[in-house]
Amino acid sequence: WAVVFMLSLGGITVVAVLRYADNVLKGMSMVLALLLSGVLSVIMFGTKVGPVFCFAAVIICGSVFVYQNAPAGPDPKKAPPPAKKTKDQATDMERAN
Fold it and tell me: What is the pLDDT of residues 46-82, one digit of tens each?
C-alpha cells in the first residue's frame, strides 16, 4: 500500500503543479528531480558519476537559468487601447474616398 500511496501522491502533485504552472515548468521540475536523485545517490550510495551525467547537469542548470531570467513577453490582457484618429487623419481619409 505504501507504493500505491506514493504514486497517488505523485499524481496529485503533478496536478497541483499543472494547475499553477505550465508544462515547461513541470518538465523542468521533473528533470531537476532526476538530477537531485542522481546527486543524492552519489552521496548516499557512492555511485560513480559519468561524463554524460555531468554534461547533462550543466545543460539542465543552464536551461533553468535561461528560463528564469528570460524577459516576459507582452501580456495580451494589457494591450494598449486602439489609437484615436486625429482631425488631420480623418480629413485625409475623407479626401482619399
Answer: 989 899 989 988 998 888 888 778 776 666 666 666 6
CA proximity to 29, closest of 17, 41, 19, 40: 17
Q: Among 18, 15, 28, 17, which residue's Cα sits nearest to residue 67?
A: 28
Long-range CB contacts (< 8 A, 24+ apart) of 17-26?
A: 24/67
Q: How far apart are CA 8 and CA 14, in angstroms?
A: 10
Backbone φ and ψ for 85, nearest 5 degrees, come out as: -80, 140
> The whole model's pTM is what?
0.51
Amino acid sitting at position 41: S
| Residue 36: all three cell numbers together | 537531485
| CB 21 within 8 Å of CB 28 | no
